[in-house]
Amino acid sequence: MKLAKTSKKRVFTIAFLALFSMSILAGCGAKADNKSADTKAPAGKTRTIILGSYTVNKEPYEKELIPAFQKYWKQKSGEDVKFETSFVASGAQAKAIVGGFEADVAALSLEGDIDQIVKAGLITNNWKSKQADGFVTNSIAVIAVRPGNPKNIKDWEDLAKPGIGVLYPNPKTSGGAMWDVNAIYGAGLKISEQKNGKQDPAFAKELLKGIQKNVKVMDKSGRESFTTFEKGTGDAVVTYENEVLRAIAGGAKYDLIYPKSTILIQNPIAIVDKNVEKHGNKEVVEAFVNFLYTKDAQRILGKNGFRPVDQEVAKEFSANFPIPAQLFSIDYLGGWSKVVKEIYGADGVWTKIVVELGQG
Questions:
Q1: Largest pairwise CA distance in the chain
Q2: Residue-range definition of the domain harbouring residue 217
Q3: pTM for this structure?
Q4: What CATH number does the domain containing 338 carry?
Q5: What tens digit of pLDDT does each residue of 34-59 get?
C-alpha cells in the first residue's frame, strides 16, 4: 500500500506487518489517493483519512464516494483531503485494526466485526446511536447461477441436491460468509416453521449441512468467492445482492435468484476514536461519515447495488430491490451475540457441521 508521508505513529508494528501485510497490500486502494493528487492543491492544509473497509465496498468508495467527498470538503473548507484505503475481508479488516492498522473509519460487513474493535477499546463512541442505527447500507443474501439457470435452482433447498457445486466464503475471515450461513440457517427455521407450525433447529442444521457438503471453495472474502465463480467454478454462489447486481451491470449474464426466505444484511460504519485522537483529524472524519448518509451519497450507493438506508432514497430505488416474501433480520436468530456463539462458536452449528463433513 502506497502510504502518504506520515508520522512514525502511523507505521504498522512489526508483528502486525508479519500477520497482515500481504492482505492489506493486496486490498489497498492507491487509486483513490491518486485521484486527490490529480489537481494541484493550493498551499493550504491537506487532511488525511485512513479508511479500513471490506472488499465489496471498493468500487463505490474509490470511484465515486471518495471523489465526491473530496470535492464537497474542498468547497466547504478550502482544504484537500487525501485518503489511504484498505479493502480486505471484513473479519480480517477488524483484526487488522485491532492489531495496529490505524484506520480512522471502519466500514465493515457486520456489527460483530465492529464489536471486536469496541472490545479492544479503540471505538469509544456509541456508534449505534448514529443515523440508521449506525448502518450505512443494506443488502440481502441471494443466489447467483449460470446464465439460463441450467441446474434449475430456485431456492436454498436446491443447493443441497447432489451434483450442485456451491460457493461462499469462509466465516472465519469473511463477514459476508456469516451473512450467507445465517441466511441459510434462518431460512431452514422459516421453512420448518411454515411446514410444522414451529421452528425446527434440526431441520435448519440439515439444510445447512446439505449445502455445506456441496461447497467447493471457501475463499477469504465475498469478493474473492464471487471472482472464483466468475472464473467458472461452481453452479451457484451465495453472496450479497449488490455483488451480483454489480456484475450484471458490467455485462455478466448471470441469473439472480431471490430465495423466498433470506436475511436482511446491515452494514455498519464507525469512527475509530483512538486513532482519530492520535491523528487529530476528528472534524474531517466526522464530516466524511456524515456525508455517506446524505441523499447524494446514498444515491451513489443505490446505483452500485446497495440498498440505501435513507428511506426517501430507498423509495427511489424500490423497483431495483424486490422484497422477498419472508425477509428476516439478525434479530430473528436472536441477535449477533447469540449467533456468534450458537452458530460459529466452538460448539456452534456451523462449526460442528464442518467437522462432521471433514472440512474443519
A1: 71
A2: 138-265+322-356
A3: 0.84
A4: 3.40.190.10
A5: 333 333 334 468 999 999 999 999 99
